[in-house]
Design a protein that fits this description.
The structure holds two protein chains of two kinds. By secondary structure, chain A is α/β, with parallel strands linked by helices. Chain A has 17 helices and 16 strands. In chain A, the strands form two sheets. In chain A, strands 14-15-13-12-11-7-10-9-8-16 form a ten-stranded mixed beta sheet. Chain A has a six-stranded parallel beta sheet with strand order 3-2-1-4-5-6, sandwiched between helices. In chain A, helix 6 packs parallel to helix 7. Chain B is an alpha+beta fold. In chain B, the strands form two sheets. Chain B has a two-stranded antiparallel ribbon with strand order 1-4. In chain B, strands 2-3 form a two-stranded antiparallel sheet. The chains are: A alpha/beta, B alpha+beta. The interface between A and B is medium-sized, with 15 and 14 residues.
């Protein structure tokens, strides 16, 4: 077990590297070329960050062949130990454990690393790994700042290495099928006029994370790792540990709920429309969690100009209420609506009563759709006939995903490393999609409409 | 005339007893066998235009299978509730969990085939009573009533035991 603590803080890193470009001067030790002789078949993998999201990724990887687990790094010793044990018990192999990412990148001969650290470390860790010759899979949001995200794209271009961003829906067969077959090829929605997306999460899932103090890093480690940044006073150990466990609540460490939850779904808006929004309005508040830095609920409206016409997209993220259908993205067109979600249970398709029934019947017969139920009027004495539209018929996707939701995205990353595929969400495309999201909190704070320009959105 | 009427009555009661044996026997056997039931699922490619789709969309075909490894004497939801009951010791619950399935199958076979009819019916009544005891503690009134009907049928079968025919072992 290597017990060396981090020697390069994130602030130091950014200052010295000038958004990554100066890394070659500041940290030459990690600029070695990848050693030759790595096995041709197995991809040698390391982990940067061994927290909860790392576990999600690891659990999605365990059924993928051709991976050799080599090393893991995290500033929390217990977490690295947990990763060591998980790999040992599953595969019977010992990995090398590090408390220092730089040391791991220096000493290990890695083909790929998976970055699942807090958002404010994504850019530094990704750039370090790219510069060290690794292909990188980095969790979304790319960074807590637009500048950080842009520095990742620059590093990817500079090094020529692969950088996949964890918008895993982009590799999900259900999402790809819906876009390519149902929307683009069969045009079942007709003209998409509105999009509506949400992630409603209950209070019980939004509480502070707590942990046994004895296994948490000490104050010096947390300060070196930058968990004190943005604080207006010298933080106590308790405050530092709260930031370490709950970094998503702090504006200097993360983008808040719109970034944590909304980014996945607003990415789908942009991907499906093949466009970036032209403007943004937003509102948000600390309505319940009054002592948190980020808003606990945010609503926003994007406007798009697309070849098929103008589209408005509404998105809300709530951390106080789970009712209202969970999480999904709804593409609402003149002929049909597709509610798609990473959860199959939330996915539904509706045919407008005026849509061409023959066409939908043919799609059903060919196996492109499954008919679930004919439209059923709500009825009741309070129904006013002249107000009512005929109820839409309900359909479903013809099949689902029989793997963990993240597995196809990781498979795509590994296939790209082997030269068998192109990335479904490289850093540049991810940033094209993420860039508007970085402006939501600002728009909500200022209550001003943002009309996007190249300056706002460039990658 | 009287002997013919007596014969008719005897035949009716004999058939009644046989009906109860069949019902109670199959009820217990199948309940016991179901404790070994499980499901299997198999993913298969969704066909579009008659060919496997290119996206990897799958649908899951599920089936029911029986295996010793699937055995669950006391259903998991009930087991959890029983394990919190101070009047049900853990060792007793585990023992009950182990023997309930085989006991139901053996008693069901005994009643169905007519082996030691009175004894096997009484034992079956005790099993249903023991199940009722657990349900009383966890306040499942519908289940208690349902088992009460079983007890009435067992008692009725015991009352008709002297009309028992087609039995392998008539003693006891």
């Amino acid at each position: 077990m290597k017990l060396k603590l981090p020697t390069l803080s994130r602030r130091d890193f950014l200052a010295k590297s000038s958004l990554g470009a100066g890394l070659a001067l500041s940290a030459p030790s990690i600029l070695r070329a990848k050693e030759a002789g790595a096995p041709a078949d197995d991809i040698r993998v390391g982990f940067i960050g061994c927290g909860k999201q790392h576990e999600v990724l690891f659990n999605a990887m365990v059924n993928i062949p051709g991976i050799r687990y080599v090393a893991a790094a995290d500033i929390m010793k217990a977490r690295v130990g947990r990763t060591f044990s998980a790999i040992k018990s599953r595969f019977g192999t010992n990995i090398n454990r590090y408390l220092d990412v730089e040391e791991m990148l220096e000493k290990e001969n890695l083909d790929a690393v998976f970055v699942s650290t807090p958002d404010f470390w994504h850019a530094p860790h990704t750039i370090m790994a790219l510069e060290a010759g690794c292909d990188v899979y980095c969790e979304k949001m790319m960074s807590n700042t637009l500048e950080g995200a842009r520095s990742m794209v620059a590093a990817m271009d500079r090094t020529g290495k692969l950088c996949q961003i964890g918008h895993q829906r982009r590799s999900n067969p259900r999402y790809r099928y819906t876009l390519e077959q149902l929307i683009q090829k069969e045009n079942i929605c007709g003209q998409i006029v509105n999009i509506n997306g949400q992630w409603n999460r209950a209070l019980s899932s939004s509480q502070d994370i707590v942990s046994k103090p004895s296994i948490l890093p000490d104050a010096d480690t947390l300060r070196k790792a930058g968990f004190n940044q943005g604080a207006d006073h010298e933080l106590s150990l308790e405050e530092l540990r709260h930031r370490f466990l709950n970094w998503r609540f702090y504006t200097d460490l993360s983008g808040g709920p719109i970034s944590d939850l909304g980014a996945h779904q607003i990415d789908i808006f942009n991907w499906y429309l093949g466009a970036q929004p032209t403007s943004l309005m937003a509102s948000g508040g600390r309505s319940y969690f009054k002592d948190r830095e980020h808003f606990d609920n945010v609503m926003c409206v994007f406007d798009y100009d697309t070849p098929q016409g103008n589209v408005r997209a509404f998105y809300q993220v709530l951390t106080t209420t789970s009712s209202g259908g969970g999480y999904y993205e709804s593409f609402m067109g003149t002929e049909g609506t597709i509610n798609i979600s990473e959860r199959g249970a939330y996915t539904k398709i509706y045919k407008e009563s005026g849509a061409d029934g023959t066409k939908w019947d043919e799609l059903t017969q060919r196996g492109l759709l499954k008919k679930q139920a004919a439209g059923k009027a709500a009825g009741g004495s309070d129904a006013i006939a002249s107000y009512e539209s005929a109820p839409p018929d309900e359909y479903a996707l013809p099949g689902g995903l029989s793997k963990a939701p993240h597995q196809p995205h990781i498979e795509n990353f590994l296939a790209a490393i082997r030269g068998e595929a192109t990335l479904t969400c490289d850093a540049r495309h991810a940033l094209e999609s993420e860039a508007p999201i970085y402006w939501v909190n600002h728009a909500a704070e200022t209550k001003e409409t943002i009309f996007f320009t190249e300056e706002h959105l460039h990658t | 005339m009287a002997s013919k009427e007596q014969y008719s009555n005897d035949l009716g009661l004999t058939l009644g007893m046989l009906t109860l044996r069949i019902w109670l026997g199959f009820r217990a056997i199948l309940t016991g066998i179901e404790k070994y039931a499980g499901t299997t699922s198999r993913d298969k490619d969704v066909l579009i235009d008659g060919a496997p789709n290119a996206y990897g969309l799958t649908e899951t075909a599920t089936g029911k299978v029986y295996a010793f490894s699937n055995y669950n004497g006391v259903p998991a939801t009930l087991y959890d509730k029983f394990s919190n009951e101070p009047l049900i010791p853990t060792w007793g619950l585990n023992l009950y969990d182990t023997i309930l399935g085989p006991a139901l199958i053996l008693l069901g076979l005994a009643v169905l085939l007519g082996i030691a009819q009175r004894t096997s019916l009484f034992a079956m009544g005790l099993v249903y009573t023991s199940l009722t005891f657990g349900l009383i503690l966890v306040k499942q009134d519908a289940g208690i009533a349902w088992l009460g009907i079983h007890i009435i049928m067992v008692v009725l079968a015991l009352a008709l035991a002297k009309y028992n025919r087609f039995a392998i072992l008539k003693k006891w």
